Amino acid sequence: MASSHSVTVYWGSLINPKTLTCYDACPNSLIAVSSVGNILWTAHDVGPSQLSHILVQHGCPDAHIVRLNEGQFLMPGFIDTHTHAAQVPIVGTGYGLELLKWLNELVFPCETKFKDKEYAEEVYPLVVKRFIASGTTTCCYYGSLHLEATNVLATAAHSLGQRALIGKCNMDKHTPGDESDYIECSAAVSIEHTHAFIHHVHSLSPGPSEDPKNPLIYPILTPRFALSCSDDLLKRLQHVATSHPHLHIQTHISENPKEVEEVKKRFGCDYAEVYNKYGLLRHNTILGHAVYLNDKEIDLIVEKKAGVSHCPISNFNLKSGVAPIGKYLDRGVKVGLGTDVSGGFSSSMLDAMRDASIASTVLALQNNPSDAPEQENKFANQQLPIATLLYLATLGGAEVCALEHHIGSLDRGKSFDALIVDLHHEAVSDLKEMLGRFIFAGDNRNISAVYVQGKLVGGTSHCA
Ligand SMILES: Nc1nc2[nH]cnc2c(=O)[nH]1
Ligand SMILES: [Zn+2]
């Protein structure tokens, strides 16, 4: 048992996701957190008269108590399953462009600047702080193709205390229409730098958990997308993936009709099949976007237990399309949310939740009455309920990252990756209504504390 004074007990309202359709909303909960940031036990419906008895029962009468105020609640931190740290400098620009033109005209020139390590040292700590301030406790970042700069990103996330999956882009082939020199000089160098990056991440300490099995920073294999990888590179990536079964993988899939057409032209098969052929579809693969998957691809993704990162802000902004997320959920695909900066113009998962709601509403409005939901068709062409939006932003994201045993909800045995949300004077008496208010009308100012592995790393109450 942890020594009594090393335990912190949070006491107040709790929002905790359970399933795609259900979450707990408990007004008087206790969450006990160990000195290394793990949740030791929880209790619910605890009134002031019962507190000391419960603490004694759990062997920690002197625990440090953090009492939440009225208008505040605890919830798990957000898990952003897809975003680009190297594109924050152009966030909000490029309105009106579509994917391939946007990549060539804006994104590649922006990422090229990370060739300069000093530039990376200036930009990346600000990027990580920006995502932490949005309540993102775990973030899946794409860096640029540069080894040194991506090392800087990993070090920044580690020292600022954010949990992160970080990848150096693998890309040795021009995308259609691109003639810049923003590609790696060979497949061999791309892989050599990938190994060096993985080594750098493994040289960082595990962080507050002190447990190498529950580290703060994970390396993630990051073939940018099929079109920017030569066949040789894809084969070498397959070799890396096969020899490291625990290594996460992230990439883009079926985001834009022209991109899908180019993939078909080059590889002669479905997009998902390209990744499967090279051993890149598995339980710890994160597939960004997935707007245009066909039924065969959906089956393949379910079979391989890969996850989809739904990026609705970006899918609207780049006019990519509306991903049929309800249909994927009905078919058993694991789904999380991604901000996809700078395809998306916001680093806030609250915005991703709102746009996920709008995307589902668009499909619901177009719904042909003859497609009326059948019993096994719970989500397709329906507006996603609040419980589902919450799940996608937290526990669903954890499943997509294959980290659901550690994060995603505030349950015993998991890491205390949590937010204290403060609605101030806008609080209402019903906790479920408070959650709705936060999702649809809240912003960073309502995020009073951000904890990762028990450590306060951000929020309005945190002085950096
Ligand atoms: N949205 C988005 N799609 C991509 N496909 C390949 N690279 C990118 C990128 O940086 N952003
Ligand atoms: Zn992306």
Automatic annotation (TrEMBL):
The keyword Metal-binding applies. InterPro entries: Amidohydro-rel, Guanine_deaminase, Metal-dep_hydrolase_composite, Metal_Hydrolase, Metallo-dep_hydrolases. Keywords: Hydrolase, Metal-binding, Zinc. Its cofactor is Zn(2+). One of its GO terms (molecular function) is guanine deaminase activity. It is an enzyme of class 3 (hydrolase). Residues 73-457 form the Amidohydrolase-related domain. GO terms for biological process: guanine catabolic process. Belongs to the metallo-dependent hydrolases superfamily. ATZ/TRZ family. This is Guanine deaminase. The lineage of its organism: Eukaryota, Fungi, Dikarya, Basidiomycota, Agaricomycotina.
